[in-house]
Amino acid sequence: MQRITHTLAGLLLAGSASLAFAQTAAPEDAKVFFISPSDGATVSSPVTVQFGLEGMGVAPAGVEREATGHHHLLIDTDTLPPAGQPIPADDNHVHFGGGQTQTSLDLPPGEHTLQLIVGDHHHIPLSPSVTSEQITITVE
Fold first, then answer.
1. Using omega within 30 degrees of 0 as the cis cutoff, is the peptide bond preceding 27 cis?
2. What start and end residues bound the annotated signal peptide (predicted)?
């Protein structure tokens, strides 16, 4: 009986893991970009960052709608989150699960890189990934 219980638990976990990490298809013409600041800009902190999205809509995390996702901002990291895995939530990966399209960042003086990536309702990058070009800004 214990062996059957462990086997059943393993199958349930395997099934839920595959569902949890399924990737949502991105619309063919989807594009994410920065409205501001522009690449190479010199700014002062706090920095207002505005996100642009074309070819799809914005929906809050947890809301599953076709051709939608929400923004994630990558700060000072050159590594994109792995395909099929949830985007981390830390100082270098900021989630905008409420559907926000802009933010104000307190960044220390110096050079910083910014990049946008769109995640689905489970914070998993779309397939193919919808990412912006990485931009570099200088904070005075």
1. no
2. 1-22
Please check whether residue 3 lies inside any domain of the structure.
Answer: no
User: What does the pLDDT look like over 61-103, one tens digit per residue?
Assistant: 999 999 999 999 999 999 999 999 999 999 999 999 999 999 9
Tell me the CATH number at 95: 2.60.40.10
Q: Please give the Cα distance from 73 to 125 (Å, whole number).
A: 12
Answer whether residue 112 is part of any domain. yes
> Residue 7 — pLDDT band, cuts 50, 70, 90?
very low
Domain assignment of residue 12, yes or no: no
Q: How far is residue 91's CA from residue 75's CA, in Å, rounded to a whole number?
A: 8
Which range marks the domain in which residue 83 is found? 24-139
Q: Compute how many other C-beta atoms are within 10 angstroms of the C-beta atom of residue 130.
A: 22
